[in-house]
Amino acid sequence: MTSLIPASAAAGDLVTLGPQSGHTLGPVADDWAAIEVWLSAVADNSRSRTDETVKTYRYHLAKLRWYCEQELGRTPSHWSAQDVKAFKMFLLKLPEWALCWPGALKGDEGYTPFRKAPGASSQADILRFLHALFKALHGTGYIRLNPMVLMKTGKPRRLDKTRAIDLDLFQFVLQVMDNHPSEKQTVHQLYLRDRFIFICLRESGLRASELVGAKMSAVQPFSDPKSRKTYWIFKVAEATAKGGKERTVPVTPALLDALTAYRSAFGLPPLPGNDPQDYGLVLSVRTHPLAAGRHGGTINNAADRRFFGAWRSVGTRFGLHGIVKGRIREAVAALEDAGEQVLARELERVSSHWMRHTFATAALLGGQDLRVVASALGHASVTTTMVYTEQDALNQIRSWENEHPGSVAQVTLPDQATPTTGRSS
Question: What single DSSP character describes residue 304?
Answer without folding.
Answer: H
